[in-house]
Amino acid sequence: MCWSLFQLWYASPLPFVFGFGILNDTEARAIHLGIALFLAFTAYPALKSSRRDRIGAIDWTLALLGAFAGGYFFLFYRELASRPGQPTTFDLATAAVGVVLLLEATRRSLGLPMVIVALAFLAYTFGGPWMPDVLAHKGASLTKTLQHQWLTTEGVFGIALGVSTSFVFLFVLFGTLLDKAGAGNWMMQISIALLGHLKGGPAKVAVVSSALNGVVSGSSVSNVVSGGIFTIPLMKRTGLSGVKAGAIEAASSINGQIMPPVMGAAAFLMVEYVGIPYSDIVKHAALPAIASYVALLYIVHLEALKIGAQPIPREKMPTRVRLIRTGLGVSGSIVVLCLAYYGVLAVQVAFGGAAGWVLAVLGGALYVGALAAAARRPDLAIDDPNAPILVLPRAWDVTITGLDFLIPIFVLLWCLMAEQMSPGLSAFWATLSIIAIVATRRPLLALFRRQPVAREASGAMADLVDGFATGARNMIGIAIATATAGIVVGTITLTGLGLMMTEFVEYVSGGNVIAMLILIAAVSLVLGMGIPTTANYILVATLMAPVVVELGAQAGLAIPLIAVHLFVFYFGIMADITPPVGLASFAAAAISREDPIATGLQGAFYALRTAILPFVFIFNPTILLIGVDSWAHLLVVIIVSMAAILLFSAATMNWFATKSRLWESAVLLVACFALFRPDWFINQIHPPTVERPAAQFLDAVAAAPAGHRLTFVVEGTTIEGDDVRKTLSLPLGPPKATPQERLRDNGLTVSALGDQLTIGTVTFGSYAKRVGLETGQTIAALIEPAPGRPSAGWVYLPAFALAGLIYLLQVRRRRVAEDVRTAAA
Length: 825
Prior knowledge:
This protein is mainly α. Among the domains are: 628-686 and 792-825; 689-785, no CATH class. The protein is 67% helix and 5% strand. It is built from 38 helices and six strands. The longest helix is centred in the middle third of the chain and has 43 residues, at 453-495. It is globular and about 80 Å long. The model has no long low-confidence stretch (mean pLDDT 81).
């Protein structure tokens, strides 16, 4: 609880309102790691103990040593800053103790997989001279390794722990308190009320509730456990096998990690690694995540058709009345969203600087009104997964009991997307709003229901304290994971492993882009085994993302940086479902009481529709809404993407209108490929791009509209003396007075000498640096779309025609089979 309160104070604007900041970033990381290590050796063992035994003297000793080692940066910050690169014996001893205790805390809180990964990288640090030539390095001494890993910000106290310190914890606390208030059960009940009447309804409930849970959840395993306890038994009762029920829950839960706005906290890390605003991260990641969930809903529907699953009965009502109610519900939701959006804008315009206070009062009034409406209905019970649902509840009756839960979610999304506040500050205000709800919801409901208020107020405070404590305990694993991931990052920066991995992958793949991507996908799967989402992304982004950028550029493929990071992230989280580790599959199998390996294999089969998406947006980044320049274009991209992923799902499930023949599935895959990659077919008859002289580069920068991606070729020499030619692209912001100013927004300057353009300064950490631009390289050519290129619509038409033909053939075959069965009966 104390950790939660400290983090809220640290993340709040209050220290700066009063004119001082309590900590710098490095000191804050040190304090947080120290607290995490202390809790890992005290609170976490007690939490794991079934008997809640008293923590022994050894654990207290380890906890105090861990807290001291973790807080060493804070305690001796000035001394360390005054003698950089000259550690004392005491410094090194503290670093050694810190690394050992960090690994032990990792073993206790996360298990052995993460420890094995960290130890493997440490072994690589010392064993460099004995490695194969492609991975060999000169090695590092123990002194240099300890200093690099613990006494600088290159290792444990690097970006990963910094992001965890700044705002990941606040999102963990936000999700914990939201669930404590009852929002998790409310979302589950809404999903049941809306979808339970459909074929395979319980399985669709698992998919939708996991998507909703993914908004605030930071773990696919916790997503499985919280939702699967109810949905897996319910799916089994509708006829699905235990293996398929567990696989559907696991597949939908890992998708919660790719669902904006949180994405298992990876979205906030991407801001640091990619160097683009958070709102852009959400925009690019939204359509693939939605498409993956829609495809899983379709897969569930096909499974229900195969087994003839019956829906859960709902209240009988005339069709006309039901359509009217549905229309009112949909239109009313749209109206409410519009009123909320434009209402906030109107208040900001009308009240200026005082708008925050006015919005707080209006929000409080809405909250009280929502509770007054909820008080007229009984609280939602926690459903018994073993009890049959005789009649589905009405969606509105469920919705009205928890409308107040939407307020903190609206606050979070408004601060992130509309106000574009930092993730930390956005989470701070959202967390404050959910704290107010947890503290007041129960007593206000009691007041409206004329029940004893004092008892409910006491219970609410107990819930709040328990929520703080649970949030802190839930953060232990993430804090420890990000700190341990720092060891991997430190090894890469110390040994130059990143450059060696580029050479290794290039050697194995033979320069073939598809082979390179498949190899990197496999490596990302291995790196992600048994590792939490946040640490998982840190590993794959640090080790694999630069490889994709470099080799893609050398192959003439200008891959947007966000596409690269989403590619490795998708395959990193796929490790949560694929055997032999597959933590989400193991959690689902424990609930369904089935074989975890079989569950994992079935889940991996369901996840194929997610696995193809990264390959799609590497070669066709429009699915990431890159290059979409109008509402009409956006609508076409959405329709085509959804149709393509549904056709892929139908082909892999071997079922469309009815059971597919092998050739029919093959035709559906061809149609899917045509919709996802129409450019491949057009490239066979027309070149995609043309090269313009480099002298036109600055003119193109000046003339490009905002948001345009400028593609060009650079040439240079590597530090090994090898000539290299790369194709890169840069996103351009709003037009500026000169093209040089526009380039500086990306951390780049260009100098002209005659017709030759040379890369000047490349700012460290800028977008230009991240895509591989180096000082001294020359711009060889400007790449522009080839004129007269046919529209992709010419490929879409035959693709849709093929899919329609297969559907009509299967409908006809299904009707014939039904007539035969009817005649036989």
